[in-house]
Amino acid sequence: MRLVFCGTPAFAVPSLERLIAEPEFEIQAVVTQPDRPRGRGLETAPSPVKRAAQAAALPLYQPAKLRTDEAFEFFAGLQPDAVVIIAFGQIVPQRLIDIPRLGWINLHASLLPRYRGAAPIHWAIAEGEARTGLTTMRIDAGMDTGPMLLRWETAIGPDETAPELAARMAAAGPELVVATLRGLDSGAIEPRPQEHALATLAPILKREDGGIDWGWRAAKIYNRMRGFAPWPGTYTRFRGELCHVRGRPAGEVAASFETSEPGTLRVAGAGLYVACGEGTWLAVEAVQREGRREIPAQDFLRGARLGPGDRFSGV
User: Fold this and answer.
1) pLDDT at residue 251 greater than cutoff 90
2) What is the pLDDT at residue 120?
3) CB 253 within 8 A of CB 268
4) What is the pTM of this model?
């Protein structure tokens, strides 16, 4: 089976490597986003998918946009049986979708139609979901709206972060991709339309998504801390200064605390606690003040020397 593989982040790499290893598939080319500034130094660097393709000596194509005549000619010239697309980062125009006989096969990191969009893993955790999964689908011209093919489900651990869950899901993806391609080629898979009325969205993360509203329950704040790791993180203000905060819902220690205005700070033993909505409390584990490194809450307490009016406030 002749394949073109489209993808960009590390999440897509295990599936590419599995397809390379299977003798029944011929990877005609790998398509990935152009090299962009990455990391703290913002030096131009290749995507993880590009590095994997180079290691396997596969042909590469890095279009700035798929909606060009050049991109159409590239795919039309190859005439692949299928295009596998995983977290590529662009909407595919219909004239490209029509080229491969089996279609464009997408591995999406949610149980569709839930969490359509660019950040399904992050939003599933942030919204407190107990389960999630992977769905393969044949893409259409919409945003994750195409007919579904196969799915894989998993529980989300109560303390699992977005990077941890993404690693587990990336490892599970290759088997689902291979089974989908085989099933489509043999006619064993019947595509199923999505129930669009049940759809929810998982838009690309923005910096402002990390702002903490201390009026939320501690559990909701904790879910956002897990879901928005490592970026944008979760942040508040302390004495007017932006601070990233990590913590978890407080247990028995906070059971005796009086209800306080959200954002109120309280020291109990060696611990730092912050009042949240509906009488809940969050035990602060670490704080990173603007322009500084992250430190344990105990070190923050020693340096800050809390006064009576000090609190965490909205951003």
Assistant:
1) no
2) 98
3) yes
4) 0.95
